[in-house]
Amino acid sequence: MARSPKAQATRERILRAADELFYLHGYNATGLDRIIREAGVTKGNFYYHFESKEALALATLDWHFEKGADEMAGKALKSRRSPRAKLLAILDHMAGRQKVQHKAGRICGCYFGNFTLEMSAESERMRKKVQEIFQRYRILFRDLIEQAAAAGEVGPSVDPDRTAGMILALMEGAILLDKAAQRPKAVADAVRFIRQYLKG
Questions:
Q1: Minimum mean pLDDT among 74-78, 87-91, 128-132: which range?
Q2: Mean pLDDT over all residues of the chain?
Q3: Which residues neighbour 101 within 8 Å (Cβ) at sequence distance 6 or greater?
Q4: Residue 86, number of CB atoms within 10 A of its CB
Q5: Element (H, E) at 173
Q6: CA distance 54 to 77
Q7: Which residues, in sequence order, are CB contacts of 142 under 8 Å at separation 6+?
Q8: I need a surface site. Which of 36, 88, 144, 158 has the fewest CB within 10 A?
Q9: What is the distance between the alpha carbons of residues 65 and 136, in angstroms, rounded to a whole number?
């Protein structure tokens, strides 16, 4: 059933508030009452759109991914760059976000990685959701590497699926290290390593 513009705007306010609070403080440390207050809605409004805090968190995971995908599409995927250059532009975008967060005073890490660390052993629904989102990233990287291979931009020894998995693991690990150190170094180093590896 289609939502009215007013209902859609309310839902967006709830998602935006929850996304920010979960990102800054984590799932367990963020109470539902605070989300409702920050969103400027009533409990009735909240429960009209989401059956529980867990359902809201699941929705924010999709919402956060879609926002990031839109940014990547605008900055990299829809450009006239080559496939290899598109992949590297996505990774540069990730590194750039770390620098922006550092300048703002707090590196928050990866939204999906944070949920994985906090909730994957507590909620099977959340574990499956973050696993699904990581798989979407892996497929995106794999497809770009396959296109780069077809264009002769990477060598025949580069296995697209395995390399996509390694890039994802390297980037996630680097983002976690930057969060631990509260400085944007590991991700930048990871991107330089991947750039050199793909030159092969």
A1: 74-78
A2: 94
A3: 107, 108, 184
A4: 21
A5: helix 160-181
A6: 32
A7: 160, 161, 163, 164
A8: 158
A9: 9
Q: Is 2 left (phi over 0), alpha (psi -120 to 50) or beta?
A: beta
> Which position has the token pair 């400085």?
183
Q: Which residues contact 118 (CB under 8 A, 6 or more apart)?
A: 26, 27, 28
Please give the CATH superfamily to which domain 81-199 belongs.
Tetracycline Repressor, domain 2 (1.10.357.10)
- What residue has token string 């929705």? 59
Domain chopping of the chain, boundaries: 81-199
User: Is this structure's pTM higher than 0.90?
Assistant: yes
Q: Tens of pLDDT along 34-68?
A: 999 999 999 999 999 999 999 999 999 999 999 98
Rounded Cα–Cα distance for residues 166 and 190 (Å): 11
What pLDDT, in 10s, does the model give residues 4-28? 888 899 999 999 999 999 999 999 9
Neighbours of 3 (CB within 10 A): 11
Amino acid residing at 197 = Y
Tokens read off for 49? 């759109």
| Chain Cα centroid distance, residue 116 | 12
